[in-house]
Sequence to fold (120 residues):
Amino acid sequence: MWTVIAAGLVAPGSEARVILYTVLGAAYSAITYSAYRVPVLASIPVALLALNMVRTPDVPTILAGLERERVEDLRRAAERERARIARELQAGAARTVMDAAPDLAREALLRAPLPRRQGP
Fold:
C-alpha cells in the first residue's frame, strides 16, 4: 500500500485521481486479506493526508492567474464596445448628412470598419 502512495506522490497531477482509487483498492485488499488490519487501518488517514498535502494546489497562484484572465477579458470587452460605439456614431453621422452631402456620407460609411462576427 505504501508503494502505491509513494507512486502517487511523484505522479503528475492529472493522474492523482487514478492513484487515489488505486490506494483505496490497495487499502481494501490489505484490510480484507491481511493479518495486519489494525496497522493498515491506522495508516490510511495518514496516507490520505500525505497525498492531500502534496496535491493541494497553490491557491494564491491560481487566484492571481484567474484575476489576470478576468482583467484581460474586461479589457477586450471594453475595446470591442468602444469600437462598436465608434461605428454607430460614424454611421449615424453619415446618415445625418446623407441628403446634404452624399459624397461625405459615402466616404464616412466606407471608412467605417465592418463589425466582426462574434463566435458562438
User: Anything to note?
Assistant: The two ends are 49 Å apart (CA to CA). The chain has a mean pLDDT of 77. Residues 2-55 form one domain.
